[in-house]
């Protein structure tokens, strides 16, 4: 139950609706029982009396109970569903708020299909929490206790039979089916997750699967996963029907028992025969609503598992966040023996990196593939928590700063940049919502992209732009942001070298006082950089200006020699 605390708390935010739903649920249940009971009484009374007025009054009362039952059921449905959907919206908002800070790291742990299945499927499953787990037992319990109390005035024996029947149908039968269900439920949930994972991979990788002629094989796999999931759901449905039928059967047996015991008491002179039909009808009506209780363990287990699966995603400790404001003025970045290890990896991706990056300087980070350059960039962006060491910006440790404030101060261009469906204008406004058309045209010109009109449509993920155009649009976006810390990971790798160098020249000339950190595979043009950091296997193996490193004739010099030999 502990796992459902958050859902319960969010449900109780709509306390008023929940209480009204319980009240109407009780009213509908008790009116239904009263309707059946009074009809039983009316039948007996009609057989024994010829007094018309009594019969007319009884018939009117019957009608009243009928109306009351229907209206109360409507009220119950209205308020319980309103409370449920409001709770779901609270849950989605609270889940999203906790998920969004984890977004940069989340895919190292979960596949997107799995995330989708959890976010959509599990949140959806929790709609059953109020409707089938929380309030029906409360309503049923109150209705049953009222019925037991009422029948005890006529016959204690019958009241005890109904009470035992209640224990059987509300507790014993559901408990018998719950362990079978628990086993089955785990399988169906895994099958659903699997299907979601395979479907998203199929969609993401459609082009590559087609190129490599693997589409049919993957399609077959998907069909077999879907068939397994369908079969699992079918079995689950059968099991649920079996449990409900069993419960209805036990309820009917109890009503027969009430009839038998009642008849015995009438024969023994312990019960007035006038009330026998009424008590049997009361019992039938009270047990009428009990069949869905067989599904209670199913829904309880489903809600519990859904809550656990959702909590698993967001339970990951968030990065420590402080509240210190970002210092104003030029900012420096200092790394002091910073190490970083990816979760579930054995070796360090960054090993005791120490660096001091000053305002007004340009630093290039170079090194072979897999040496840790992008990881260093992610650490500078404070996306990952450090395994060891300290990172400070403007003299303040990053743990003391708010993550959003850190990003607020940075012009960031990553290897892969996202473009939204919209226009060039709307994609530029992401960086600076207040930018004017003139400013946007100006930055487009600086990255030599002014042939693209601001109103041009950008398709999803920028599919209608070339690789180089996307990179230049990302740089234009960073320029528009206009902050003093520039972090760029291979920003012009898909741009021809002439245009790439012209863009760098523009940036460096226009932003002389800013701090630039640029990851580059390309070793040409690094003469303009103030500092070059050479990385290998997560360590800094060399650093210095271009001339210093060339003079040293060590690692960087050798890389340069290899590059020259390849291109000459
Ligand atoms: N999300 C991740 N989870 C686990 N290990 C990772 C992850 N990302 C990178 N690594 C590992 O960390 C090491 C450094 O990778 P990184 O991407 O920083 O290298 P890089 O120098 O930027 O490479 P490239 O030049 O090819 O982009 C590599 O061994 C890589 O396998």
TrEMBL record:
Membrane topology reported for the UniProt record: Multi-pass membrane protein
InterPro entries for the chain: AAA+_ATPase, ABC1_TM_dom, ABC1_TM_sf, ABC_CydC/D, ABC_transporter-like_ATP-bd, ABC_transporter-like_CS, P-loop_NTPase, Type_1_exporter
GO molecular function term, any single one: ABC-type transporter activity
Gene Ontology CC entries for this record: plasma membrane
Top-rank taxon: Bacteria
UniProt keyword list: ATP-binding, Membrane, Nucleotide-binding, Transmembrane, Transmembrane helix
Keyword Transmembrane helix in annotation: yes
SUPFAM superfamilies recorded: ABC transporter transmembrane region, P-loop containing nucleoside triphosphate hydrolases
Domain ABC transmembrane type-1, residue spans: 19-302
Subcellular location: Cell membrane
Listed PANTHER family: ATP-BINDING CASSETTE SUB-FAMILY B (PTHR24221), TRANSPORT ATP-BINDING PROTEIN CYDC (PTHR24221:SF653)
CDD domains for this protein: ABC_6TM_CydC, ABCC_MRP_Like
GO biological process, one term: cell redox homeostasis
Full protein name: Thiol reductant ABC exporter subunit CydC
Record carries keyword Iron: no
Transmembrane regions: 20-43, 55-75, 129-150, 156-177, 248-267
Main location: membrane
Domain ABC transporter: start-end pairs: 333-562
């Amino acid at each position: 139950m502990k796992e459902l605390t958050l859902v319960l708390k969010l449900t109780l935010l709509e306390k008023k609706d929940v209480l009204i739903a319980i009240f109407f649920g009780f009213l509908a249940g008790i009116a239904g029982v009263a309707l059946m009971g009074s009809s039983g009484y009316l039948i007996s009374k009609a057989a024994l009396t010829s007094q018309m007025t009594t019969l007319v009054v009884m018939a009117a009362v019957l009608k009243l109970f009928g109306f009351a039952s229907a209206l109360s059921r409507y009220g119950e449905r209205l308020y319980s569903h309103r409370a449920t959907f409001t709770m779901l919206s609270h849950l989605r908002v609270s889940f999203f708020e906790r998920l969004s800070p984890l977004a940069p790291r989340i895919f190292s742990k979960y596949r997107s299909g799995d995330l989708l299945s959890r976010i959509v499927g599990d949140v959806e499953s929790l709609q059953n929490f109020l409707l089938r787990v929380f309030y029906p037992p409360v309503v049923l319990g109150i209705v049953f206790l009222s019925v037991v109390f009422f029948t005890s005035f006529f016959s204690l024996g019958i009241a005890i039979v109904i009470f035992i029947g209640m224990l059987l149908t509300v507790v014993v039968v559901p408990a018998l089916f719950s362990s079978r269900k628990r086993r089955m439920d785990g399988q169906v949930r895994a099958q659903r997750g699997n299907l979601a994972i395979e479907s998203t991979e199929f969609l993401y990788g459609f082009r590559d699967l087609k190129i490599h002629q693997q589409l049919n094989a993957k399609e077959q796999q998907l069909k077999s996963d879907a068939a397994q999931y369908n079969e699992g759901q079918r079995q689950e449905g059968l099991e649920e029907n079996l449990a409900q039928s069993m419960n209805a059967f036990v309820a009917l047996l109890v009503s027969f028992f009430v009839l038998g015991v009642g008849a015995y008491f009438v024969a023994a002179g312990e019960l007035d025969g006038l009330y026998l039909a009424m008590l049997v009808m009361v019992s039938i009506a009270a047990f009428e609503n009990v069949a869905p209780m067989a599904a209670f363990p199913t829904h309880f287990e489903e809600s519990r598992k859904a809550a656990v699966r959702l909590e698993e995603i967001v339970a990951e400790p968030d990065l420590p966040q402080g509240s210190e404001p970002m210092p104003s003025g030029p900012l420096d970045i200092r790394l002091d023996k910073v190490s970083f290890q990816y979760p579930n990896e054995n070796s360090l991706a960054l090993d005791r990196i120490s660096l001091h990056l000053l305002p007004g300087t340009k630093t290039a980070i170079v090194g072979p593939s897999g040496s840790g350059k992008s990881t260093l960039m992610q650490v500078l962006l404070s996306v990952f928590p450090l395994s060891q060491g300290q990172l400070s910006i403007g003299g303040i440790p990053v743990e003391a700063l708010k993550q959003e404030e850190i990003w607020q101060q940075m012009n960031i261009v990553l290897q892969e940049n996202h473009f939204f469906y919209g226009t060039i204008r709307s994609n530029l406004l992401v960086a600076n919502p207040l930018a004017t058309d003139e400013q946007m045209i100006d930055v487009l010109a600086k990255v030599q992209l002014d042939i693209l009109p601001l109103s041009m449509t950008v398709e999803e993920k920028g599919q209608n732009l070339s690789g180089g155009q996307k990179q230049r649009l990302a740089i234009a976006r960073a320029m528009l942001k206009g902050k003093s810390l520039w972090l760029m990971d291979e920003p012009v790798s898909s741009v021809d070298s002439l245009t790439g160098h012209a863009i760098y020249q523009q940036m460096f000339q226009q932003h002389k006082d800013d701090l630039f950190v640029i990851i580059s595979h390309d070793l040409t043009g690094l003469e303009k950089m103030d500092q070059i950091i050479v990385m290998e296997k997560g360590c800094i193996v060399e650093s210095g200006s271009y001339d210093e490193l060339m003079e040293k004739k060590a690692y960087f010099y050798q890389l340069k020699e290899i590059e020259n030999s390849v291109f000459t």
